[in-house]
Amino acid sequence: MTAELTTERLLGLDALLSDEQREWQRRARQFATERIAPVIEDDFEAKHFRRELIAEAGAAGFLGMHLEGYGTAGADAVSYGLVCMELEAIDSGWRTFVSVQGSLAMSAIAKFGSEEQKQQWLPGMAKGELVGCFALTEPTGGSDPAAMQTFARRDGDDWVISGTKRWIGLATLADVAIVWAQTEDGVRGFAVPTNTPGFTATAIESKLAMRASVQCDIVLDDVRLPESARLPGAAGLSGPFSCLNEARFGIVFGVVGAARTCLEVAIERSKSREVFGKPIGAMQLTQQKLADMFVEYEKAMLLALHLGRLKDAEAITPEQISVGKLNNVREAQKIARTARGILAGDGITSEFPVMRHMANLEAVATYEGTDEVHSLVLGRALTGFAAFR
Known about the structure:
It is a single chain. The protein is built from twelve helices and nine strands. About 50% of the residues lie in helices and about 15% in strands. A hairpin with a 2-residue loop joins strand 4 (about 175-185) and strand 5 (about 185-195). It has helices at about 5-10, 20-35, 40-45, 55-60, 75-90, 90-110, 115-125, 240-270, 285-310, 320-340, 355-365, 370-385; strands at about 130-135, 150-155, 160-170, 175-185, 185-195, 200-205, 215-225, 275, 280. The protein is α+β, with helices and mostly antiparallel strands.
């Protein structure tokens, strides 16, 4: 590993990984620390996403890395999770990019697309030459996709799509949008080239989180597509849900990276910040905070690894992914808040990354299923009663 961290040494993380998994983690950490970290505070302040790094991420093999064929790396789930963790250790926006491109847009094409669609889009997306987005959420909210109002109607041999989507990552950069729409036969997915007349994406500028990332509103105004644009293997909500589970899995690992960074920053600051004549790290209350933060980080990391191994064994369930998303985001938020307190007033400045991670984690807590939704998923699994309505 590059520059082993205090938390990794204490956890003994290295012994839990294979050589291949360690190499993926090393490569992702090097990319994140050398290419993203030096500019991320300025990019966050300027609301700037560095599109020029997309091709580098593709060359490193990070895009759609868990998929097989079409120029993808075919890596295991744990390796993909570790890459997500190292990217989010610098900024959630970059893990979000890899997630939207690979876990959502590329996964939808790989799972449900025709061979022609796979050949058309996946090789370029794996290289970072083409960008994709995943248009499911609508302005009224994302927790009830069955109520989506975007509609695709048949018109001769074509499809015509009308509707609006919101909080769609990468849409202003995308070459292809995976759009989910109601039809007379239920929900269907479409690979929509973003230069199609009637397709408009507008970046959301008012964000106080994920500022070094791109999220957008989309308007589909009678977007006309041939039948060949429909994803032939997708029927009903099981299609988008299976892609969302891929993205949620990446979050389970990713937020552990944000938590680790906040914890490491708090540890180092506790050694250098002195009050009452000694470093605050020598005080019992501070050590209690650091110990509690580390224990929760450790449990989150072990949970992520367990879920990764279940996924590699093709034995993971959506409910288990909900456990990981619910717990790890929740604990990452707590760790970030506690770290901010240890840094005192300096914790709200851009001299330290903690406040930026706190803001980003607020967004991560909302997307790919809120706390409430994942709690109800688990409640249904535990009781047999669906309490969503």
